[in-house]
Design brief:
Helix content of chain B: 25-40%
Order of helices and strands of chain B: HEEEHEHEEEHHEHHHHHH
Largest interface: A-B, 40 and 37 residues
Strand order of the largest sheet of chain B: 2-1-3-4-8
Number of domains of chain B: 2
Number of strands of chain A: 12
Distance between the termini of chain B: 47 Å
Number of helices of chain A: 10
Oligomer: heterodimer
Structural class of chain B: alpha/beta
Number of strands of chain B: 8
Helix content of chain A: 25-40%
Strand content of chain A: 15-25%
Shape of chain B: globular
Strand content of chain B: 5-15%
């Protein structure tokens, strides 16, 4: 017997949720799918493939004010941070929850990023397992899966009859207080199968590819449009500037990308990553070498396939991973 | 006859062999059957990689700026729209006519990948090939071949394209296409927008630009955006803040559109790459229509005609 929500019960439960929480969910926005706060249950997409942008901006907004100082009566005073309401991030796929888990490590390791932490603590994650895989999906190759509940408070697995409910945490259980959940004798539907990508062992060989001409050749076609980083569920580069107005200073953090020319330009003009090749290598090295080495964990990729879909010149992380493995084993043989 | 991949391969191979070119910028198949990718050749042997099909969306002309210092001529494959950006780059002295060899291919429309998948109701993995077939595309999927009317699945820019055949070339592969049957009053959507009141326009654009994440992919893909330092990246004077918020998003998108006024050649790359699907071409084409009506000028047709917004005539009467 498994806890189970019929479609009607799910909608009923969501309606109740909306009264108490801010609910952020996938919606049809203009011509595309985006995660946005919803007012009505009917707006929520319960059957979507992949959103244009990942929901990482719920915790790491495209732009946010880190602090504001105002001059009052001849003195500078810090303004209090805005209150953050309890919220539910609903309908994210397991890969996007994986992305949030990968973001948690740098943002929540001491000293934690206060802004990220406040949002993260106010948010419950209710995931939606995938019923189909797009050809660009490869979550299973990077430690995830279409029904992986690991990084979620609640997982819903869609079946023809309704949704199998997996409540994973106390925070998740709190969403069901006073709500009558049925039980049903039902098997999990078979998860869709993703196409494998050779990521295993890539951290060990990545460094061997550092000086390869491959990176500059790959970058010939890169137009450093930054899209790969902006659509990525776990890329977290940012820029910080001060907005100085009369009697008011605001420090703002906005998304940035390591692919942008000048991202690493230092005072005095020196740029340690002056070419497109060096910047492109940085992207894949951060994912496959620096992150796993620094945080003693897995690669910083969730296999969501968004960068593959978005890249206007078809630089494909799946091909890059294969090529790194090929070059790495060649270098190892030569050594 | 329409140009085929085979003709492109043979012609480019010959160009390398007779010394006409030392480099070539073209398309090859990408990581799946619905994607092509730009490719750069240094010899005739590699020409077998080249393809020409209705998936060749990228405007390759901007890559010419990367080839300023190479030996020999650089060959480049251009569609009608792309050829107009080559004209603009020549006019604006960014490239040297003697250094480029333009291989033109008349184009009868490029497929919008997402539209095609939606119309067919298949997943991208199921499509094997897409071919041009007059007023339709022949799409080979695993179960067989389907014929899809072009109007249903063309890219937005191709639906209003006035120049399917390159306006400048050293060699044309395939027969010229004078006009596309589906192109009628190509400014109708612009006119609809122009007919709105100021408040309605403000509401419309505020809503559309609210989702801009300022990735600048529009700028990076635009053949007209080649400034060494873009105004948005300048720190002194600091024109636009980094905040991704309504005011800054408005500043970025409107100033960029103005910089392209009288220069945008409607390849639609900005809109193709926009991750949140902002209708940027509506803004660009509104300004294009202004220039067309005030100066009887269309950009990208002749390298000799000076750009109207960079020309001052004391006796000019614009009626404004």
């Amino acid at each position: 017997m498994k806890p189970f929500l019929s479609r009607d019960n799910l909608l009923l439960w969501l309606k109740r949720l909306l009264q108490e929480y801010t609910v952020i969910a996938p919606v049809q926005a203009w011509d595309t799918v985006l995660f946005q706060p919803v007012k009505e249950v009917e707006e929520i997409l319960l059957n979507y493939d992949v959103s244009a942008l990942s929901p990482k901006d719920v915790f790491f907004p495209t732009s946010e004010t880190l602090f504001t100082f105002e001059r009052q009566g001849g003195r500078w005073e810090a303004r209090p941070l805005p209150e953050i309401k309890k919220q539910v991030l609903f309908g994210l796929h397991p890969c996007d929850a994986h992305g949030i888990a990968l973001m948690d490590v740098p943002f929540l390791s001491p000293p934690a990023d206060l802004h990220y932490q406040r949002r993260r603590e106010a948010t419950t994650l209710v995931g939606l397992a995938c019923s189909r895989a797009r050809p660009e999906c490869f979550c299973e190759s990077v430690g995830g899966g279409p029904q992986d509940p690991s990084h979620l408070d609640v997982l819903l697995i869609p079946t023809p009859q309704g949704y199998i409910l997996q409540v994973r945490t106390a925070r998740g259980a709190a969403l069901f207080t006073g709500f009558n959940v049925e039980e049903l004798e039902i098997d999990n539907p078979p998860p869709p199968v993703t196409t494998p990508v050779p990521v295993a062992g890539i951290t060990e060989i990545a460094r061997d590819t550092f000086n390869e001409v491959f990176w500059e050749r790959l970058a010939d076609r890169c137009i450093h449009c930054n899209l790969c980083a902006y659509v990525c569920p776990c890329c977290y580069c940012f820029d910080i500037r001060d907005y100085a107005l009369k009697g008011r200073v605001e420090r703002v953090r906005s998304w940035e990308s390591c692919q942008a020319a000048g991202f690493t330009r230092l005072a005095g003009g020196y740029d340690p990553r002056p070419s497109k090749g060096a910047r492109l290598r940085q992207r894949f090295f951060h994912k496959f070498l620096y992150y796993p080495t620094q945080f003693k964990g897995q690669v910083k990729c969730t296999g969501c396939g968004r960068c593959v879909r978005a890249c206007p010149v078809n630089i494909d992380i799946r091909e890059v991973a294969s090529e790194m493995q090929r070059i790495g084993s060649r270098v190892a043989r030569a050594a | 006859m329409k140009a085929t991949s085979e003709e492109v391969k043979t012609s480019v191979k010959k160009l390398f062999e007779d010394g006409s070119i030392g480099h070539f910028i073209g398309y090859e198949m990408g990581s799946d059957s619905l994607r092509v990718t730009p490719c750069f050749l240094k010899s005739g042997q590699a020409a077998s990689r080249l393809v020409w099909n209705p998936l060749c969306a990228n405007n390759l002309s901007k890559y010419l700026l990367d080839f300023g210092k190479v030996e020999g001529k650089v060959g480049i494959m251009v569609k009608g729209c792309d050829s107009r950006s080559v004209v603009e780059l020549l006019k604006e002295h960014q490239i040297d006519r003697d250094k480029v060899f333009i291989v033109g291919v008349p184009c009868s429309g490029i497929v919008d990948r997402e539209k095609l998948l939606a119309v067919l109701g298949v997943s991208p993995g199921e499509v094997v090939a897409v071919e041009d077939d007059g007023d339709a595309f022949l799409v080979t999927i695993k179960e067989g071949t389907r014929r899809v009317k072009k109007e249903q699945v063309l890219r937005g820019e191709c639906l209003v394209c006035r120049y399917p055949t390159p306006v400048i070339y050293d060699m044309l592969i395939g027969e010229a296409v004078s006009s596309l049957p589906w192109v009628g009053d190509d400014y109708s959507s612009v006119k609809e927008l122009e007919a709105l009141s100021s408040e309605e326009k403000e509401r419309y654009w505020s809503s559309e630009l609210s989702r801009c994440i300022r990735c600048y992919a529009c700028r990076q893909s635009c053949p007209g955006c080649y400034c060494q330092q873009c105004f948005v990246d300048q720190l002194d004077p600091h024109w636009v803040g980094i905040k991704i918020a309504p005011q800054e998003n408005h500043q970025w998108n409107t100033v960029r559109a103005f910089h392209l006024m009288g220069r945008c050649i409607e390849c639609g790359e900005c809109q193709r790459v926009c991750p949140v699907k902002i209708p940027l071409m509506l803004l660009n084409r509104h300004l294009l229509r202004e220039v067309e009506s005030k100066f009887s000028f269309q950009p990208g047709l002749s390298p000799e005609t000076p750009p109207p917004l960079a020309t001052f005539k004391p006796d000019e009467d614009l009626g404004i």
